[in-house]
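Ticket reopened. Same input as before:
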Amino acid sequence: MFKLIPRENVSPVLSLLGPLFSVGFTMLIGGVLFYFLGVDPFAAIKMIFWDPLMSETFSTYSIPQIFIKGAPLILIALGLSVGFKANVWNIGAEGQYIMGAIFGASFALSLYPLESIFIFPTMVLMGILGGSLWSMIPALLKVKLNVNEILVSLMLVYVAEQILALASLGFLRNPDGAGFPGSRNLSQYSSASNSELIVGTGIHLGVLLSLLMVVFFYVLLFRHSLGFKIKLLGNSPKASGFSGDNPNKLIFLCLTLSGSLAGLAGIMEVAGPAGQINIDFNVGYGFTAIIVAFLGRLNPIGIFFAGIVMALTYVGGELTQFMLNLPAAAIQVFQGMLLFFLLSFDLFVHYKIKLKGNK
Amino acid sequence: MDLSEINFAVLVASLIVASTPLVLAALGELIAEKAGVLNLGVEGMMIIGAVSGFIVGVETGSAYVGIIAAAVAGALLSLLFSFIILIMQANQVASGLALTIFGLGIAALMGHPYTGIKSPQISTISIPILNEIPILGTMFFQHDLVVYLSLISVLTVWYFLTRTRAGLILRSVGEDHNVAHSLGYRVKTIRFLAITFGGAMAGVGGGYLSLVRVPQWTEGMTAGAGWIALALVVFSGWRPFRLLVGAYIFGGITILQLNLQAIGVNINIAVLSMAPYLATILALVVISMSRFRGNRGAPGCLGTSFVKTT
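Engineering reply: fixed in the latest deploy. New output:
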């Protein structure tokens, strides 16, 4: 049998190889899955990972799309990763994303058709506020009453989804929309529109912000004492207490920070690519971002690349759905598998494996 | 609105049906957690149970075969979790989430051709004499086999945990795996069995949902039931009977809100649909506030992985 020996230091090489191997294994097993679904595995894998980037027919559309779909994933995952480091598990980012969008859009639409340059920045702040307020519910309950933040944040996703339905069918419904569900289109309201920065690509402010946030979080985690305190709380809560840090403050900060970023992602999406508040506004970015955070090894730069890879599976997934009739759920399975391989591979990062018996 | 349209005895009977998936799934998780394993994949195992149970039920024409298939499917998916956390030593929280994401995907993939089909009927077994008691008969003694089984399992789990040697060993593994190991118990084997039992129970819960409770297959039909089951375990203070009571209160809220929707009460449907989730949060808050019983019963090693050092 085998024996596990804990490594004194985490191997940096293996730590980098893990995500790469995981993507490779996922392609392999995913290919087998595609075969059983009656789709040519080579064509499908090529279409998911290669065509969006390299094919002449698709790439002009897909490359910007990767960044557009990557932006919310990166924003949310950055926020989540900070909490995950501290063993604070916000898994309700999907709800905070929805609430950010609703808060921001409600503010902007309440002023419609007033035009002012102050509307857009205030709307973005309201979006951030919406997300952070929603995450403050599990944060306060955790800090004050020690209620499990995993369950509360997740339950609030379902509540947020119902509020989204209320908004699309009720208080935000477009009065000129002939009774159809959904709010006014923010892209037709120039003061609130998160318009594209590069004409014809759809690249919007959220993409730019996601890149800036990668830098910001890198500095926060590796060059600022707060980053150290958060890591300390996660690795050794006792030492954290001895050094005089207030764990409750850190937990509260981790949760609201991740909520704020999810809210930011939400408002950017609703004012940009989505355009309006509607029942089907949320597409699971809040959950996929959990995978992105792990795939990126909870490191801001890693999360950037992980976000891009995951966005690639979304864009490529749509392509295979369209061209090869691959069911949409296959991509979700693909993403779940990726997380399994990643988590499994961590064994080699944290332990040396020795054959037992011949001492 | 006419509240008299709601028949109380029928309401309680449907409450029991609504709660049964939760009782089953939560009971499975209770055993896993008592062995020190926090499996956040309940939602994933439930939905795999729901889809497999439904498919097998439709293909064989027997709801019972469907329920058995659901148990097998839930247990099979839990093997993946066991492998990752017991052999690959992965973080339990993250692995549970992965299991849920993966399960939801696989279920959507498997269930696609079966959307909108009717499931085979499950027969009601009326318990003679008892079912003729007015009101109580309708409430408690005219159910299907799975409901009775869920009640028997509550009793069995309670007996197992508190009155048997095996139950004591399982709890010791959850309380302190190092001590249990040094006493010579096989920590990983015991945890593996507990996880598998949890998977099978979640599977049956899911199967009951798609074959009896709804009865239909729709994508994402568990709608957080697995997570609510997890909350119920915390709420129960890791005790089977309190878990049953909690599940029934919870089922009551769900059924009441559905009935209010049906009779057209003047509250928005979206607001009513929030009720079960808000109730779950409220329950967690209440249980945390009563400090002296709050976390008592939580196994000492819950959520930590065991590495053999000696």
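Chain B is about 70% helix and 0% strand. The mean pLDDT of chain B is 87. Please confirm and we'll close it.
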